[in-house]
């Protein structure tokens, strides 16, 4: 891949320097100055050409760089509070990192980071698609503007934009020297320094360099568990997380800290008819992991309950769909006598943890340690004693880390064939290396600890042929071709319940994609516009999984192992076999797929899937006047399928897969600019048919993916900007979303399944609300700027964001629900007379409202966990612009 990238880049650069190539029109600036008291015009490139946002027949929220800086928007996730029917969270359940972006628009998105799961909202950086949610929560030190496009964008943006797209456009070098940036301090020892320098080098040639550094203590403190002396001995007898396989063992006394460095450089040459922009960026993060709190614990009756044991094993058929309840098994092992353990067929599973396959990982047995008369080997049981009830404290002692290194280079070349026709080429290569970890059980025990390592690289090449203002301004078009290639690996390390299940999951992925697309916008008469477009995509995915259980739990549960950890996968086992004498060995009887590795649960070999799709777009626009547009559109988008990788039980020779999902949206909208540019009103109503929804659902210990349902989504969005008097601007938006399942497969979690605690969860049901989706989203933001006698200015700014309750996951666990939220941010800025520097004092989350921004449940581990939003924080920022 790298060889192809550097070869292609060399060819592109050589072509760019050829004398016959002509200059293309540059992207317009983010904003254009308007008459005193008017509303600024924001120029966007949502349709691959520069246009006034009010002329684009798409529901789109656009934010200029100055507006983002004033509102202290420092990363992509912060935008979720500013746009209707948009939910952007930093972090996903059990990712342990706020560098991961959970993006949902109009009820469609993805709340996971795994390599096998593609995002449902596309993130683009200067026209380059970011394929992974890891690292997509970009730092924004030098942003020119951000465009949030709502609804399927399959025609011009491609696959995995089924919910919408977020396009980030960074600052281009200016033709005069300029140095701008800011220094910020604030709560938890915040220190942030950002600077951008424009460096003119020669006629038509300029560079820009941006650097940013952030350091901040975590707001969640890890505190000592306040046990009795006997309980403290039990903690000391628990196995250290260092004894289990992890991607990294880094820990910290605080969580949700920041320590990051980012850099970006651009070199831009503007010739007579050609513009070439070469760019590179680098980000490094090395900090504690995201905050995590233990929210609840539970013990559904089922495996290792007092009744109905399956003879000869430790399995219980009650609530069998939940698999083994490892939390209950752990308590049973430490609190039962050898005779009681033997009566349940659990002698092996309560014995030494680890197996003879990996003898270096063997740990002492758990059997009977709390009832053997020796108080010095006791262990703490698992129960609700570890719930602190405080979002800012945790009893966790295990790993907490977020280590990300991401970089990319790109070449963007535009040239004019004629005054109206432009060719553009975007070539890019990106690379990410990420390691993260979290202790989700929030306790001194190792009940649910996860670490991950992921390496990813991607190459993309896009060619566009753009026609603008042809036929006396009546015709615009874009034709294009796109190629994308991605490869990488993700290694999961998950430890359940003091090592009773030890998941070690290496996975490798390869993707190749190509597409052809086009869109024509034609205005046959002054009052009528027509849009027609489409995109054809073909994609091939390869996947090789290696998931294994280092504890060999199934062999132990079914009597194919000794208490010392020796397993007998191929026969000659001394305990009760699961089949009659002379039958197949345990390896075959339990459907293990790899005789070379008897504890591997995933089928060996490379799996392959191919997808193809055509996503059309049709639209009609009516123009009753120059400042009013009424539009209607139909658009389609899709997200590719893949394989479920997080498996803890053998699947035989089957690699469980899932297919693509699709969404079709009808939209009707109005965009108006009124009262001499003092009032701007946008309204969009829509309905979406969402099919083959890829649902993340818990099956036993494993979060799995399947095409488990369909949904109907309908709603509206209203956005208004008003400048009633000079100096005062009012921004408001209202979003309504009725996003509910219209069908579900039988495999999806049901309300309070047999054996569950009543009221634990509502389950996914037909008519139930989609996850990460608020019914109502409302924002209001007044901004007032007044001149001071000395020639300076004072800016007063506030933002209020209201969201109705949100389910953080599919099964709708009551304890993990995000309640109605009302968040207020406020700031005051002084600008000195020459506008060379300014000082801002502000507060975020003024009322200190706390709620779960991500959450997850694992019934088998007995752990229900989540990450809270940040508390109230103050900041002081000094900006400069020379």
Short description:
This protein has eight helices and 42 strands. It has a single domain, classed as Maltoporin, Chain A, CATH 2.40.170.20.
How would you describe this structure to a colleague?
The strands form seven sheets. The protein has a 22-stranded antiparallel beta barrel. A five-stranded mixed sheet has the order 4-10-11-8-9. It is mainly β and 882 residues long. 7% of the residues lie in helices and 48% in strands. Residues 2-35, 306-322 and 574-581 have low confidence and may be disordered. Strand 12 (178-186) and strand 13 (190-202) form a beta hairpin. It is globular and about 90 Å long. It has a single domain, classed as Maltoporin, Chain A (Beta Barrel), CATH 2.40.170.20. It has eight helices and 42 strands. The two termini are 42 Å apart. It holds the Pfam family Plug. It is a multi-pass membrane protein. Residues 1-24 form the signal peptide.
